Amino acid sequence: MMMNRVNQKVLVLLATAGIALACAGRAPTEPATTNTLALRAGQEHPLPGAAGYLAMIKVEEDSRCPIDAVCVWEGNAAVSLSLRPPSGPAATWRLNTTTPPKSFTALGYEVRLDSLLPAPRVGQHIEPGDYVAYVTVMPMAP
Fold first, then answer.
1. CB–CB of 131/40 below 8 Å?
2. pLDDT of 133 over the 90 cut
3. Within 13 A of 117's CA, how many CA atoms are on the CB side?
4. Of the four listed, 18, 26, 70, 132, which is most buried by Cβ atoms within 10 Å?
């Protein structure tokens, strides 16, 4: 027996509504959002969910190979980051671009140093205020 077009449309509509209702009560399965922050020295960024504040204190070391040179070793840059809870003192970590540690976990987040810009060039001095540390902030699984 062949269904007419009106019956087909009604069945499709009912099936779609049923699927939507079945999914409505489910918790999301996607992980929480990962944020990439660009931090300059002295700049403070709030963490998602008001969990605290992340700041770059300073670049402690920059022995990276200049991008216009040939080096035996790629070098390393190290930055000091602080994480301050909504109330209480801040804790400080030193993270590196090449050698460990490159990340830390605190206040329910993993914070990872991804890169430091600008890249050094032969014969050019980088002013402390010109550095930008790119960090990824990822919520930890419960």
1. yes
2. yes
3. 7
4. 132
Domains of the chain, residue spans: 35-139
Of all helices (H) and strands (E), which one includes residue 37?
strand 35-39
User: Residue 43: pLDDT above 60?
Assistant: yes
Mean pLDDT of 87-114: 95
Asked if 120 and 66 count as a contact pair (C-beta separation under 8 A), the reply is yes
pLDDT on residue 12: 45
pLDDT at 3 over 60: no
Burial of 116 (0-12, 13-18, 19+ CB in 10 A): buried
Residue 11 has pLDDT above 80, yes or no: no
Query: How is domain 35-139 classified at the CATH fold level?
Result: Tick-borne Encephalitis virus Glycoprotein; domain 1 (2.60.98)
Beta-carbon contacts of residue 56 (< 8 Å; ≥ 6 apart): 39, 40, 41, 42, 43, 79, 80, 81, 131, 133
d(CA 94, CA 103): 9
- φ/ψ bin of 42: left (φ > 0), alpha (ψ from -120 to 50), beta (otherwise): left
